Structure formats: structure tokens, C-alpha cells
Amino acid sequence: MSANKPKLLIIPGDGIGHEVIPQATRVVNWFADNRKIAFDISEGELGVGSYNKHGKTMLPDATLEKSFKSDAILFGAIGGDGYEDIPIDVRRETGLLALRRKLGLFANLRPVVAYDELLDASTLKPEVIKGVDMIIVRELSSGIYFGEPRGIEDLGNGVRRGYNTMSYTTPEIHRVLRISFELARARRNRLCSIEKSNVLETSKLWREEARKIAREEYPDVEFKELIVDAGSMELIRNPKQFDIIVTGNMFGDILSDAAAMLTGSLGMLPSASLSEPDKNGRRNAFYEPVHGAAPDIAGRNIANPLAAILSFAMALRHTFETPDEADLLERAVRDTVARGVRTADIKGTATRAVSTRQMGDAVIESLDRLNA
Ligand code: NAD
User: Fold this and answer.
1) With a 6 A CB cut-off, is 111 part of the ligand 1 pocket?
2) pLDDT for 41
3) pLDDT of residue 2
4) I want to staple 295 with a disulfide (CB 3.0 to 4.6 A). Which of 80, 119, 167, 323 is the partner?
5) Under CATH, which number does the domain 1-114+265-372 receive?
6) What pLDDT is recorded for position 171?
7) Residue of the nearest CA to atom 4 in ligand 1?
């Protein structure tokens, strides 16, 4: 973190990013006004809107430059209307994945916490999800989403072939395993590694290296392994068995959306993406809700802003190193839902749903109450 005011870059992105990020920004400003945690805030562009404005790129140079200079980035979402029309190489080279890769964001921490007050918002049985509190660590800058060669080729006679490459090197496996073991040590000391080592060479290597690190460096941590098909079943059957899950890029993408239903909605899942530390211990850090641009509800002021707001809480914890402030914000979110305030996605059996803006109002009210 820089010596002066910490630099926070805010990028709403596309779709509901323009609705949830303004609510998270109100919370950022509340901390500046009430808790003397002021940020040097700037704004950036990324996504379909940016492509439509500038052409050729979804990620303007100005945003990229600011990204490298910021202590933390708070991002909304990318995608939705017009995304599919952008050439696939432009998406790959200038989209969210490109920014993640450029910033070296290899560890994506996705906490999954089931609030007692929201048990009725899930489609799963209350006794299965009550008390769920885990973090899924998704490897974010390698694996099949980045592997080369990739493409779609014409084989002639009307036949086409699509192909991707899944690969992991040992350093890529080691670093995401180590950060996950460290997280486990700071929590309930349990780590489960999920892969597909019965079929994929990449996963076989992942398993061998994970076992080695578990044995040699973290013998005190309870270590378990699951194949991704069984792992996805266990996630729904008995989610409380998990403390930290570590997994590759694609499996983490899929498992964490499934895990959203343990909390009631994708609108409840924040995330933090971190790079390796530089020589001063500083990590690039990117905070964003797990959800996407949600074109089916965008522009209607009904999206749930809590994932975006909780992503800022993760920034307070992991980048700004103010755990008390992170706790305060997480307590305010819990207080808000405990008071029965619900957006449509977490309405459950409640009688009415509030708007995105009203949910923002309610979190600010809870912050005021808890800070009084
Ligand atoms: P999505 O996450 O945007 O939406 C999935 C479902 O969850 C939708 O029904 C949506 O309405 C609902 N939902 C999501 N966030 C919500 C919130 N905060 N409040 C209430 N409901 C919410 O996934 P999708 O529909 O598969 O993808 C839409 C676009 O977003 C695609 O272009 C996709 O590529 C992109 N996407 C981007 C990201 C990202 O920016 N990190 C992640 C996933 C998808």
C-alpha cells in the first residue's frame, strides 16, 4: 500500500455493474466520511460499453495504466448485450481475462457464507446450508482459459473442430496451493483440493504436487482430495464439511456458481483476486462480485448490490489491512438482511423486495447504527 492515501480504482464495467458499483461506492465514501479511511479514487472503463465507445479494445490504455498504479481495483461485471458480437480475439486480448492475466491475479478467493436470515432464500434445505462458511480458491490466471494452442479450425467437408489446451506448470500449482494452505491455517485448518486426476494429466500433476506440499510444508493442515464430479456432489450434499477448497480455473468457475445457491443468490458472493507479492510485499488486488453483467435484469434497479459491497469489505481486509473496518462492513450487511431487507433474488418468503438503491440505503443505515 502506498504511503499517501491508498489508490482505489473503480470500474463499473457493463450491465448491472453500473447499478451495484454505485452502491458499493456510497459505502466507500461512508468509510471516508465516518471512519477516516479516505482513498484516492479514480474511475476506469472495461467491457462492452468501452468497446462500443473506443472500438478495437474493451480495455483502454488509460484503465490498464491506472490498474497497475492502484492499490486495489473495485470492479462490477463485464458482458451482456453486444458481448457476443465482439470478435473473440478482441475479447481474449482486451477483456477481463486479459486484465487478470496482465495483473498476475492467480488466486481468486470466493467466500461462501450462508446467513441464517437468508436460509429461506435458497432452494436447498435449511439444515443442509445452515452454518456454511467456506472459501473457494480458484486458480485464475492459467489453465484451460488461457492455454495455447486454441482455436476453431475447418477440417473440410463442412466439418469444424474446436480445441483448447489445459495446462498447469508446477510453480502455478504451488503458489495457489500455498496461499490456500495459509488461508486454511488462519481458519478451521482444513483444505480440500478438487481436480480430475483420474482422467486429466494436468490434474494428475496437480494432485502429485498438492500431496507433496501438504506432506512437506503443511502437515498440520487436514488435507483432503476430491475428483471434481464427486466434489460437486459433496458441495450440495454436505457443504459444511468444507473450509477451504482449492481448484483450477474452470472447475472453480463452475463450482463457485453452484455454491452461490448455498447462500441464496449469486448476488451474495464477493471475491478477491490477488497476485504474488512484490519485493515490498504489495500485491495487485482486484475485487469483484462473482456474478456477471446479468443482462436479464440490467437497467431495472433490482440487482442485489451486496456482493459488490462485500467485495469492498474484502478490499478492506486483504489490501487496506483494516480488519476491524472489514468486520464492521460485514456486520452491517448481516444487520441489513437481519432487518428483513431483501432484493428480489433473496426475497425468499419475505413480502416485498427493495430496489438496488434501497438496499444501498439500508446498508448505510446499518453502518450508521453500528457506528453510533
Ligand atoms: P450472470 O452472473 O450475469 O447472471 C446469472 C443469473 O443470476 C441471472 O439470472 C442474473 O439475473 C442473476 N444475477 C446475477 N447477479 C445478480 C445480482 N447481483 N442480483 C440479482 N440477480 C443476479 O451470468 P450469465 O447470465 O451467465 O452471464 C451474463 C453475461 O455476464 C455474459 O456475457 C457473461 O459472459 C458475463 N459474465 C461476466 C462475469 C464477470 O464479469 N466476472 C461473470 C460471469 C458472467
Assistant:
1) no
2) 97
3) 47
4) 80
5) 3.40.718.10
6) 98
7) 294
